[in-house]
Specification:
21 helices; mainly alpha; 608 residues
Length: 608
């Protein structure tokens, strides 16, 4: 790495700090833009931020001045413009942090490939080339860049690569030093150095995750308290506050629950995600995957149909104002589920192959160590193993025998069985099998070690998710069940409080019946007069706009926002911010939250 900030434009994530706050922020933005690989420069992002801030500020000032007056509107516009400018300027930094988090999840696998290649041939240059070419993502790309840069020099580029990533993952620097030491160490000490290199990476990952779980509990508890409990509890007080003479309009409530609180939750979620040190993200499945056809139109049609049906059912069985809440929640969730169903199935298939990969390497490594050719050992593994992994190796073995091609071509050639499996672990195993086919019997023990290494990496991921589940489990349950349950019951309670404060018990019964969609014919003339008095009182006091239908829709929208945001946050913390997993889980959370909210409102209204 060079020392100038301006030179950090090759996708590398680091650059030496500059003096001054502005210089540091500029350097951070430059690093982020370069790391993301954007064509736009950091100066362009800064200019865009100022333009967006100016537009948002003017829009907020004009819109709010008409409702709250010119002075508060101007102040709100100024605050909104500054916030928008800051958001645009910090967005690349946050996106780079998320991408870096996903990249560091591949560090144990990359170091593992270095170690395995060093066991076959103690050449750091060949090991670096092998590890870089058999992986994908920013880590592998960075290693390949440094390997190419040092091709004409005496070094392998491993030291420069480790220094580049050291600020975010110090263990990788230690592992790289041990790998370089192993290259020049005697044979009897080489294995110990390589073992310690992999152990350093795994222990570094575990320690950083454990520290993150301990630090994140406090912010998550604060998010839970101020984003869920307190806002939902305040809903029940709104009718009482209006009846006591405190002016509470629907625009104020809508602005608070649909703009201010979601913006705060979004900012807090982004901050939490950017603080995660490592994420074990699943393989990325893009639109070029052969098993993932374009289904945007199908998803939109299914979502629209489900939304219309849910709205009709909610209007008939619950109350009229529940129709848009049910339509949006069920419709959006259905559209997301249909849209990512094929991607989810492809991801499950990839995971099934990865689960059986250690067993396959054990079978193949044992055969190769006994003198069996790698091609024959691959076919044997396909016959002995069941499931997706056995099928993949059986097809590869049959393809190798029929077409008379090498190991790599058998797996990854045109029409190969591993082509639709974009897994770095599968690609790395195939690459090592290709090397083993050239090395012969000595590679058998290395393949057996690969099996142990894959099992260890899977245990590392499982342990990391188990630690994070203590935090993400609460977020997931809150998003889908607890928040909608409290929200629905609180709206029903607000209905009763509004009715009792404004018109007595008789009017309360009438209002409760109206809110539940039940006819009020049995209330009699007295009940009808009380209801009319309630409406007149509300209109005269300026609180008529904040009726139960309006409040129910606002809270319903806030519940759906919570379901989407908290579910996305929990998924991002646990698995990395993968679009397929986030869309799938949000697609489940939205209909669940919608049903819970409406059932809670109806049930609490019946009891009250």
């Amino acid at each position: 790495m060079t020392g100038a900030v301006d030179e950090a434009t090759d996708g590398s994530p680091t650059a030496p700090p500059s003096e001054g706050v502005d210089a540091n922020e500029s350097a951070e933005l430059r690093r982020a833009v370069a790391f993301l690989g954007w064509e736009a420069s950091a100066e362009r992002v800064v200019e865009l931020g100022y333009r967006v801030g100016l537009g948002v500020g003017l829009l907020c000032a004009v819109a709010l001045s008409a409702f709250v007056g010119p002075v508060p509107g101007t102040l709100a516009g100024l605050a909104g413009g500054l916030a928008a400018t800051h958001a645009v300027h910090r967005a690349p930094v946050g996106l780079a942090a998320l991408r870096r988090t996903r990249a560091l999840g591949a560090a144990p696998g990359l170091v593992g490939r270095l170690v395995l290649r060093m066991r076959l041939d103690p050449s750091a240059e060949r090991a670096v080339r092998f590890a870089a070419r058999t992986g994908d993502g920013p880590l592998a790309d960075g290693l390949a860049r440094h390997e190419r840069g040092s091709a004409d020099g005496p070094t392998s580029g491993l030291r420069a690569f480790a220094r580049e990533w050291r600020p975010w993952f110090p263990a990788i620097d230690r592992a790289a030093a041990l790998v370089r030491t192993a290259a020049s160490a005697p044979a009897e000490r080489r294995g110990r150095c390589l073992d310690r290199a992999l152990d350093a990476t795994i222990s570094g990952t575990t320690d950083r995750l454990a520290a993150f779980v301990g630090k994140v509990r406090g912010p998550v508890s604060a998010l839970y308290a101020f984003g869920v409990l307190l806002p939902l509890a305040l809903i029940a007080l709104l009718p009482a506050a209006a009846a006591s003479g405190v002016p509470v309009g629907s625009r104020v409530v809508a602005g608070l629950y649909l703009v201010v609180l979601p913006a705060g939750l979004f900012a807090a979620s982004a901050w939490l995600l950017s603080r995660r040190p490592v994420a074990f993200a699943p393989p990325s499945i893009d639109g070029d995957h052969p098993d993932v056809p374009e289904r945007a139109q199908h998803a939109a049609a299914a979502g629209a149909a489900a939304g219309v049906a849910a709205a009709a059912i909610a209007a008939r069985l619950v109350t009229g104002w529940a129709a848009p809440v049910a339509g949006v929640g069920v419709g959006a969730g259905t559209a997301l589920l249909v849209g990512v169903r094929r991607r989810r199935a492809a991801l499950a298939e990839i995971r099934a192959v990865e689960r059986g990969l250690p067993d396959a390497m054990t079978v193949i490594g044992g055969d190769v160590a006994e003198g069996v050719a790698v091609e024959t050992a691959i076919a044997n593994a396909g016959e002995r193993l069941d499931g997706a992994t056995g099928e993949l190796f059986e097809r590869a073995g049959r393809r190798s025998e029929t077409l008379r091609v090498g190991v790599r071509e058998a797996f990854l050639g045109r029409g190969g069985p591993a082509v639709p499996v974009p897994s770095p672990r599968v690609r790395g195993a195939v690459a090592l099998l290709a090397v083993a086919a050239r090395e012969g019997r000595p590679a058998g023990d290395v393949l057996l070690e690969l099996a142990d290494q894959l099992e260890e990496l899977r245990a590392l991921e499982t342990d990391a998710r188990r630690q994070l589940a203590t935090v993400t489990g609460t977020l997931t349950n809150t998003a889908a069940v607890f928040a909608p349950l409290v929200g629905g019951a609180t709206v029903a309670l607000a209905t009763g409080v509004d009715a009792v404060d404004a018109g007595g018990l008789g009017a309360g019964a009438t209002a409760g019946a109206d809110a539940l969609g039940v006819g009020g014919g049995g209330t009699g003339a007295g009940g009808g007069s009380a209801a009319e008095a309630t409406a007149e009182s509300g209109a005269g006091s300026g609180t008529g706009a904040l009726s139960v239908p309006v409040l129910g829709r606002i809270v319903g929208a806030y519940v759906l926002i919570l379901a989407a945001l908290l579910t996305a946050l929990a998924t991002g913390l646990e698995r990395g911010f993968d679009r397929t997993l986030v869309a799938y889980r949000v697609g489940i959370a939205l209909p669940t939250a919608t049903a819970t909210y409406l059932v809670a409102f109806a049930g609490a209204g019946a009891l009250l």
